[in-house]
Amino acid sequence: xLLVRRFWKARDNNGMKKQKEQLKKRRELMQVILQHFDKxxxxxxxxxxxxxFKGEGKIQIYWTRRKQWKEEVIRLLYPKDxxxxxxxxxxxxxxxxxxxxHYKGTTFGSINKKNSEYYLPKTNIxxxxxILLNRLLGxxxxxxxxxxxxxxxxxxxxxxxxxxxxxxxxxxMYKNINVSFTKVKAFLESIIQTKNDKNCDxxxx
Length: 205
Description:
This protein has helices at residues 2-42, 108-111, 126-153, 157-166, 168-172, 181-203, and strands spanning 47-48, 53-55, 58-66, 70-79, 84-95, 98-107, 118-119. It is of the alpha+beta class. The chain has one domain. Strands 1, 2, 3, 4, 5, 6 and 7 form a 7-stranded antiparallel beta sheet that branches. A hairpin with a 4-residue loop joins β4 (70-79) and β5.
């Protein structure tokens, strides 16, 4: 009976040790991915938020890029067991120092027509893991590029205005919005008017 208990205890200890080793390897892989992601995003003018948010078993890192009247945000979220990560992006409108939060947002997966979660390589075979990791980083490069193109599409305030007009009912019901729909519409119309006025000034002799 004593030998049986020792057997089960040894097996449990081995199982826990193996889980800790796997967690450590996934954490190391995630660090490689984060460094790569940060490099690609900051190359495009984004600045990483020094604060890292932790809660509900997940970790969130933010990068932002401000333009004249909008702020572009990229968020990377991953669980504390480091099994996958999910990059997302959204746009804030900068209205007289008040932020219309999350005017428009989506995941990298949605932009690139795939699943929102990017899973880490599961193999422990060294050379195969490197192949899969490099493949994942290559895919991520393309997806980051497409996500930034998606953000830049909304550099045109007319596209933003057309979008909120199409989504008026949805946006009016969105509880997290801290600025009224009417004010957002007026803000974008003023941006468009200012842009048109500048174009007229440039065309007049």
